Amino acid sequence: MSALGAYPDEDERERELEQLSARAGGVLVTIGHSVGGRPIRAVRVPSTTRDAPRVLVNANIHGPEHIGSRVAMAVLRGLAEERADELRRAAEVVVLPCVNVDGFARTVARAGRGTLKELRCNDHGVDLNRNFPLPTVGDAGSLWGLVGSRELSIAGSRDPARATWRGPHPLSEPEAKALHDFAIVERFSAAVSLHSYMGTFIPPCVRSVDEARAYARLVTRARCAQRRRYLRFQWGFFDMFTGELEDFLHHETGTWAVTLECFTLWQTLRQHLRAPTLFARFNPADPRSVVANDAPAVIAFLLAALELPHPRRGATEAIDPAP
Ligand SMILES: [Zn+2]
């Protein structure tokens, strides 16, 4: 057992990934390495259908958000134990349970104690989920000017001392670059990024009413798979690009992408009063009920998204040579 109770340390997490990969008939891939030199590994679980589209489940881009990694691993376990056959028929599933491997290891080494800045970022102190390039599609990129001129820290900060520091430039960090390059090649049809905490679904920033409505319907499908239904947090016109993975995936690789913030605000407040560590704020002491609640929602979102045509693809498609 690790310093984090029911949660594995990095060696246990990687062993579990290897075991589940073998049971699922999957292929382990290393998409890149962190600043600290740790491999960032994913499992590619082949579909039982030929030429099936690909989907992505990723987690732990923020160091202390280990519950997301547990939910991702539960999806992989479901595929390995033949409990997610519908998804396996519909798609090749790539499960990437830990993007920020250095932040994960740091959180374990400090037994979950530290400031948000200390545990959330990579080893350069960058918020990896603010380090993706801003979409260049249509008029949407212009809103970045608004963020650039005002300091909205949740949207990413220019101050290296902040927990949401965007880094010196987009894709400055090897972890974000690795995931970016992987996604460009894979062209996932759908993706779920697992975070904590808020008990919400957060679709990307989109500018068309049709796409906003599509996300509302996709999130409804995901919520219906939950016993404890989370909220949908969609900003509409006031949303903006912040260098997040979902915005990049939606606009540049044509992926229906959503952030799922596991663990509700009420649960986290209650737990934090009893055990005031950063880790206790982000992760339930017993992950089982959250995992049981959220893994089916991940699968439901992916299945619903696979029924839709790709959202528009951005600049990366425009420069593709004609076949
Ligand atoms: Zn997060």
Q: What features would you describe in this structure?
A:
The chain is about 40% helix and about 15% strand. It is built from 13 helices and eight strands. The chain has an eight-stranded mixed β-sheet with strand order 1-2-4-3-5-8-6-7, sandwiched between helices. Mean pLDDT is about 90; it is low at about 140-145, about 145-150 and about 315-323. Zinc ion binds near residues 62, 65 and 195.
Please supply descriptive tags for the structure shown above:
disordered C terminus; globular; 8 strands; binds zinc ion; eight-stranded mixed sheet; 323 residues; Aminopeptidase; alpha/beta
Q: Fill in the CATH topology.
A: Aminopeptidase
> Which small molecules are bound?
zinc ion
Strand order of the largest sheet: 1-2-4-3-5-8-6-7
Largest sheet, if any?
Answer: 8 strands, mixed
Radius of gyration: 18 Å
Straight-line N-to-C gap: 53 Å
Strand content: 5-15%
Could you name the CATH class? Alpha Beta
Domain count: 1
Please outline what is shown here.
By secondary structure, the protein is an alpha/beta fold. It contains 13 helices and eight strands.
Topology:
Layout (H helix, E strand, L loop, with lengths): L9 H15 L2 E7 L5 E7 L8 E6 L6 H15 L4 H6 L1 E5 L4 H9 L6 H5 L23 H6 L24 H13 L3 E9 L1 E3 L6 H16 L6 E2 L12 H9 L2 E9 H10 L3 H5 L5 H19 L8 H4 L5
Parallel strand pairs: 3-4, 3-5, 5-8, 6-7
Antiparallel strand pairs: 1-2, 2-4, 6-8
The protein binds zinc ion.
